[in-house]
Amino acid sequence: MINTEEQIKLLVELQKLDSQILKMEDELNSIPEILSKLESDFNEKSSNLKKHEDDTKALQLKRKEKEGELKAKEDIVKKYTTQMYQVKTNKEYTALQEEIGRVKADSSLIEEAILKIFDQVDAENKEVAAQKEFLKKEDAVMREEKTKLDADALRIKSDLDRLKAQRAELTVKVDQKILARYDRILANKDGLAVAPITGESCQGCFGHMPAQVINEVRMKSSIICCENCTRILYIEE
Ligand SMILES: [Zn+2]
User: Does the residue 16 lie in any domain?
Assistant: First the structure.
């Protein structure tokens, strides 16, 4: 003969444990998501550093290109200077002189451009250093968060083990048919299989309970379910 009053008490206790277990499982399951969010946030912040590093590389390439151009101009000047010794007429000499003047003017423009690139590289290098410093701090913050989350996960796992052991001990005392019913409702009704009646409403679905049902629940002579949401009903002492 099943003692229904005792069984309902056990189910209420079981529901309390299961609510805790489900809450902790949710918490545990959310941790990988938080971790990957931390990483993607960090990667986003790193993209600024990458941009400045790329800009620096592009500037260095541009500088090399300009230095190549400058070298070519200097070679032309050398070539013309040599030719000046070989020309026969004053006219030719003057023409070369003018040509050299033009090439030298071009060269000094290129030199100015190179100096400007050096300044830009300096500025970029400062920005890269600042970004690295910023990311170093962000990385430390992220690592700290990760360590904390890992510790949280371990703590939650060990709490869950403890609660599940308690659950196993408790379910041994519950009638197997009642337990099967409880488990079915728990799975189908969002982790809440047992609901109290407060005032005149079921706290599972907040539906109004007829006086007849409330009386039956109060009598505790059988398991009474909410007609609306099927949850097992009880009245808090
Ligand atoms: Zn209900």
Answer: no
* 25 Cα: distance to centroid of ligand 1 (angstroms): 25
- Number of structural domains in the chain: 1
Domain-embedded: residue 154: yes
For residue range 151-186, what is the model confidence (pLDDT) as tens digits?
Answer: 999 999 999 999 999 999 999 999 999 999 999 999
CA of 95 to the centre of ligand 1 (A): 105
Q: What is the mean pLDDT of the chain?
A: 96
Does 20 reside within a domain?
no
Q: Is residue 9 part of a domain?
A: no
Q: What is the 3-state secondary structure (H, E, C) of 160-185?
A: HHHHHHHHHHHHHHCCHHHHHHHHHH
Give the pLDDT mean for 117-126: 97
Ligand 1 centroid to Cα of residue 12, in Å, is: 15
Alpha-carbon dihedral sign for residues 34, 37, 41, 46: positive
Question: For ligand 1, a single-atom ion, which residues have Cβ within 5 Å?
Answer: 202, 204-205, 207, 226, 228-229
